[in-house]
Write a structure and sequence with these properties.
- By secondary structure, the protein is of the alpha+beta class.
- The protein has a single domain (16-167), classed as Pnp Oxidase, Chain A (Roll).
- Helices cover 26% and strands 34% of the residues.
- The chain contains 5 helices and 7 strands.
- The chain has a 7-stranded antiparallel beta sheet.
Length: 168
């Protein structure tokens, strides 16, 4: 299929996570990449399991970890979810995170684990960490900008003409 720019919501539109390609990517059993700034100002790219609840991408983190300190210092993040099955597809999100502390296992963390490593493997892992005193933090980047790249069906507007022609 010829890649089409400009069909459906345009790059940057926060409705893009509701499109079929984005929904497919948000359901994959692969980690996302969380791009952020460390407290010392250096760039970081951290693989994270996630759960999309329809309006925000939820990442569970253990209290006291690097991710929490970094998000307090620099709440702006970018998230990439990508797959190369049947052609490259990429979902790009940018926004600022909200944080909420939890005194127990986050349900979204459990959902992400089950999706990523499977029901059986996650059962023993989740039982091993779900102990009294577990402190988790719910990190939720709310998209302020979204982009979808699906080189089989939807090339970004700025894709060079030579690439679009080669994919046609």
């Amino acid at each position: 299929m010829t890649p089409r720019a400009g069909s459906g919501p345009r790059q940057g539109d926060t409705r893009l996570p509701g499109t079929p390609v984005a929904e497919e990517l948000l359901a994959v059993a692969t980690p996302a990449c969380l791009a952020c700034t460390a407290p010392d100002g250096s760039p970081r790219n951290i693989p994270v399991n996630f759960h999309w609840n329809g309006r925000e991408l939820v990442i569970g983190a253990f209290a006291g970890t690097f991710k929490i300190a970094a998000r307090r210092a620099h709440p702006a993040v970018a998230v990439t979810v990508a797959t190369h099955d049947q052609g490259a597809k990429v979902l790009l999100l940018r926004g600022e995170v909200t944080r909420a502390e939890a005194g127990s296992l986050l349900e979204e963390y459990a959902i992400a684990q089950r999706r990523t490593i499977g029901e059986e493997a996650s059962r023993s892992y989740l039982a091993a960490i779900d102990k009294p005193g577990l402190q988790m933090v719910r990190i939720a980047p709310r998209p302020r900008w979204a982009g979808v790249q699906d080189f089989g069906n939807r090339a970004p507007e700025r894709t060079p003409r030579i690439v679009r022609e080669a994919l046609a």
